[in-house]
Amino acid sequence: MNWIDYIILSVIIISVLYGAARGFIYELFSMIGFAASIIIARKYYVNLAEFLIHKTKVDDILLGFIEKNKITEAFSTIEPLEKGLSNIYQYITLVIMNCISIFLIFIAARICISLLEALLKEVFKLPVLSNINHSLGALLGFARAILILIFFYAMLMPLASLEKFLFIHEAMTSSLLSKYFYKYNFIFNWALNTALNIFIS
């Protein structure tokens, strides 16, 4: 185990304890809001990425930064040339733009939904917490921790492809738990699968 494994375990333990302390109903509100934020980000991130690419110079700045750094084997399985891109640097730039867009929309949606959660919690008078309520809250806390880690890895993986952040890539590959969060990372797969479409458009 390395420092990434300890971070993963810490996130899970803290989230489980927090969920147990708050109870099932509070955690249910939170999980619904978290899931809704991911769904909203999934639906609209492409639009934001296209706007940032065509209306700002963020992608040019990113491309310049990436071109100054060598690519590690983190992206060795990706073949952008076969998909019509001129080089892997452009591909990684587009992937990062997608990740940035997912992050921004997720945060905006999460803030708005959190305000709604607060109102709902004031409206509904919650019962005194029972042991079952605590246990179910801990279970939802565990589920939330997994989603948080998947989201975190989706943002981290593009950086790990650059030599400047080689220590992150090395830590991820030597970690016992990391493989579960990048191998089955559906959020990062969104960013990968739509990169070519954004480039063409």
UniProtKB/TrEMBL annotation:
<dbReference type="GO" id="GO:0009403">
    <property type="term" value="P:toxin biosynthetic process"/>
</dbReference>
<feature type="transmembrane region" description="Helical">
    <location>
        <begin position="6"/>
        <end position="25"/>
    </location>
</feature>
<protein>
    <submittedName>
        <fullName>Colicin V production protein</fullName>
    </submittedName>
</protein>
<dbReference type="GO" id="GO:0016020">
    <property type="term" value="C:membrane"/>
</dbReference>
<keyword id="KW-0472">Membrane</keyword>
<feature type="transmembrane region" description="Helical">
    <location>
        <begin position="136"/>
        <end position="160"/>
    </location>
</feature>
<dbReference type="InterPro" id="IPR003825">
    <property type="entry name" value="Colicin-V_CvpA"/>
</dbReference>
<feature type="transmembrane region" description="Helical">
    <location>
        <begin position="91"/>
        <end position="116"/>
    </location>
</feature>
<keyword id="KW-0812">Transmembrane</keyword>
<dbReference type="Pfam" id="PF02674">
    <property type="entry name" value="Colicin_V"/>
</dbReference>
<keyword id="KW-1133">Transmembrane helix</keyword>
